[in-house]
Amino acid sequence: MSLITPPPIDPFISPKKEEKKQKGKEKQEACLCTMIKVARDEDLGEQIGKEIYFDLVDHDKVRTFCIQKQMPFTQFKEEVAKAFGIPVQFQRYWLWAKRQNHTYRPDRALTAQEEIQAVGELREVSNKWNNDELNLFLEVDLCLDLRPLSPPGKMIKEEILLFFKLYDPLKEKIRYVGRLFVKGSGKPLEILTKLNELAGFSPDEEIELFEEIKFEPNVMCEQIDSMLSFRDCQLEDGDIICFQKSLRNQCGEQYRFPVVPSFLKYVHNRQPEEHKIIVPTSDFPTKEPQTIEVAPVDTARTVDDPVSLCFTWTINNFSMLKVKKLYSDVFYVGGYKWRILLFPKGNNTDHLSVYLGVADAAKLPDGWSVYVQFSLVVLNQIRNKLPEKKDTKHQFNASEADWGYTSFMPLTELNDPGRGYLVDDKVTVEAYIVMPKVIDC
After folding, report:
1. What does pTM read for this prediction?
2. From CA 193, how far away is CA 398, in angstroms rounded?
């Protein structure tokens, strides 16, 4: 009897083949799943005023569920009930939508018909379609008598879902305080008592309301007329109202940013820490920045005259720049070293970004601070055409040693030869600085 031996089996599996096999398996599994990111009031409360200031939430920092595409959404709600301890009957979900002004807000509640669909089908109707990702806002309302929420799609059409942020000008802080359904025909005046309750104020506290409209390329936050209806104020589902105590009978000069719009503009213009990394200043830099002296405009000033100057910086070979950001040469005014910081391709935006900064902030003594009024300008090199100019003021200190505009002007305008800002591949930037002189008592 002859013995038949099977063909030898190679016990060695190539790591590359194993890795390829694993990736293929992961890809196959990913095709069968939908990533659902669920934002709740708790997320808004944790993030607003700490990690974010505009809009409502960073979806990358909320609870994410990996759900089979064929799973009915009603079954997904049971998974949420297990994860959050929220009974299914108290859950209502809202789809997010990206608006034309680049904000991202809850847009509408899911309908009863949509909730019986499979998760994969539901993702297709979402305005947020990023691969297999679905972003939702979970509305929870546990009434004292444990009445469930109205069935999806059965809400009164007249109702508008609004979100509220509270601003404190003394602490210079903003935080999320909650959301309310209001009638479109109703007036903001009718909810002032409720807002005082959310803020922890006395019921008769006088407050002012502002709508946070957008933040790119510039902040738009406008005061709301409490006597108009919500519809007349053009408010809709997902809109944000910021409110604060009225300063009508107070001296606003004691606050750096007395009202919400001024604070949001401050946050928008604030220079992130990342921008403070020092880079060389020339167009194709090979050496350290040089310090130059700039004489004040008025050399015959009296002791209480402000220190002022105009510093001009011409950048050659602008279109050939490969660096992310540039610093100008250092110049002196009022006993401080200054420089201009510029992002030629924009600071994570499609606009030119320009800032004024204290050059040696890290070497100044603890507690230093200097108040400056200044203008940043991109000159127009075509005769009789106006420059692009922005005026502002800032109290420079160790934590805010740079200040300016992330969205100074659109790159399309800057790079358009017919506009006159970029001529012979040169761009000229100026900083006009006025700084009150400190007078010894």
Report:
1. 0.58
2. 40
